[in-house]
Amino acid sequence: MEQARCDGEISAEAAYGLMVFGLGADDPTRPANVALWRAERLPLPLAYTTLSELLGELKNALDFAERVEGALEAGARMLARLLIAPGSDDRNARQPDRTAVAGLARHFAPTQHYWAALEAPFKQFLVRLADDQSVDDDGATVFGLMELPRSREVLRRTARDSFRDATSGLDLSARSLKALASAERLFNHRLAEALGSTAGAPLTPTAAEVPA
């Protein structure tokens, strides 16, 4: 259809709305027991239906988003572990119960805010990526020279905002601030690894701001 539109053989829009439905079950062996369902309306430029290079760049962008999710989860786990057992960053010290750590990390839930905040930018990105075309030295069409770096910056900013929001309810005790500083260092390190760039300035108060 997209090729026919480009060739002028048919009259069609460059993009259409796509409804996507999803179901989830607590037990994958019993899919009839639906635990949640969701419907999303997304813009679908027809170029995605014919251009494998464009789809490949979209997959790359989604991979970046998932790696950033991993950085948020790592930071939340570190924070939970140090709040439960402040000295547990030393391998020789007492280590907290993994179930307790996982439960507290889920309580912070930075990834929930992260994915929710990305919904509107992602819809815009779908359209802009398809329009972001250029030609390389070999005459091949290249997608995303402008939009892919821009999308990574959106991921970085959204992840930092999500981590900040998730941890904003902590008290200002020395114990909490020390745990947060360590978790933030890990998060920033993983974020830089995920995006291949510097994650930015620290989020926690400076030493002068920590109460004695």
Describe the structure.
The protein is of the alpha+beta class and 212 residues long. The protein folds into two domains: 46 residues, no CATH class; 159 residues, Orthogonal Bundle (Topoisomerase I, Chain A, domain 4), CATH 1.10.132. Helix content is 54%, strand content 14%. It is built from six helices and four strands. A two-stranded antiparallel sheet has the order 1-2. It has a two-stranded antiparallel ribbon with strand order 3-4. Strand 1 and strand 2 form a beta hairpin. Helix 2 packs antiparallel against helix 6. The chain is globular. The C terminus is likely disordered.
Helicity, as a percent range: 40-55%
**Outline, from the CA principal axes?**
globular
Q: How many E strands? A: 4
Gap between N and C termini: 68 Å
- Our count of domains comes out at 2
Mean pLDDT: 85
Can you name the CATH architecture of the largest domain? Orthogonal Bundle
CATH class of the largest domain: Mainly Alpha
Q: What kind of sheet is the major sheet?
A: 2 strands, antiparallel
Question: How is the CATH topology of the largest domain named?
Answer: Topoisomerase I, Chain A, domain 4
Strand order of the largest sheet: 1-2
- Give the percentage of residues in beta strands: 5-15%
Quaternary assembly = single chain
